[in-house]
Specification:
The complex is a heterodimer of chains A (115) and B (116). Chain A is built from no helices and 11 strands. Chain A is mainly beta. Chain A is globular, with a radius of gyration of 13 Å. Chain B is mainly β. Classes of the chains: A mainly beta (115), B mainly beta (116). At the A-B interface, strand 5 and strand 10 of A face strand 4, strand 5, strand 9 and strand 10 of B.
Chain lengths: 115, 116
């Protein structure tokens, strides 16, 4: 199994509070991703990183920010949590780059509930 | 607009028979396709992939077929086993272009139930 750890695994938070989810990898992969999974929507990309301090938006980035200060850690922050951000969040890593074809490996997920 | 479509939310198959899961895509720049399997309360796990230079890739009981002209791919599982019961996601990327286009775009998933 790819060495990906997400923390926390479960969290309940109140509307309006900031929340940070952490993804830690031991594979030294260049690319890291945050996805959310919701019923009827599949997996949607929130943000991704292609290197330390290099990040970009995905298709559902509003209300989220990310940071990557080390190769192994990718943080996802909900600046002011809303009920619409109740979801299961998955971190993924891959070595794919320009001209490359590589699968992404996923973490176990974080179930976030905003009340 | 959805770039990767899995039009069947669910599929039920008898053990030992063939399971066929379908996926359509709209972006002609996609050149790498993958299937993932997901059990409840776990992360998706990679199953099999195919690049656009091929039309078939086989790995044990799993075979992926790609029809570029129809922008269609399918996953065949033969023979199906109860342990195959899971949600299957199709994903695609424009891997050869790199950058954000190399990111995986997922379909909504198909829930496969294999009955003993």
């Amino acid at each position: 199994d790819a060495g990906i750890t997400q923390s926390p695994r479960h969290k309940v938070t109140e509307t309006g509070t900031p929340v940070t989810l952490r993804c830690h990898q031991t594979e030294n992969h260049r690319y890291m991703y945050w996805y959310r999974q919701d019923p009827g929507h599949g997996l949607r990309l929130i943000h991704y990183s292609y290197g330390v301090k290099d990040t970009d938006k995905g298709e559902v980035s509003d209300g989220y920010s990310v940071s990557r200060s080390k190769t192994e850690d990718f943080l996802l922050t909900l600046e002011s949590a809303t009920s619409s951000q109740t979801s299961v969040y998955f971190c993924a890593i891959s070595e794919s780059g320009r001209g490359g074809y590589a699968e992404a490996f996923f973490g176990q997920g974080t179930r976030l509930t905003v009340v | 607009d959805q770039q990767v479509k899995q039009n069947s939310p669910s599929l039920s198959v008898q053990e030992g028979r063939i399971s066929i899961l379908n996926c359509d895509y709209t972006n002609s720049m996609f050149d790498y396709f993958l299937w993932y399997k997901k059990y409840p309360a776990e992360g998706p796990t990679f199953l099999i992939s195919i690049s656009s230079i091929k039309d078939k890739n086989e790995d044990g009981r799993f075979t992926v077929f790609l029809n570029k002209s129809a922008k269609h791919l399918s996953l065949h599982i033969v023979p199906s086993q109860p342990g195959d019961s899971a949600v299957y996601f199709c994903a695609a990327s424009a891997g050869n272009y790199g950058g954000s286009q190399g990111n995986l775009i997922f379909g909504k998933g198909t829930k496969l139930s294999v009955k003993p």
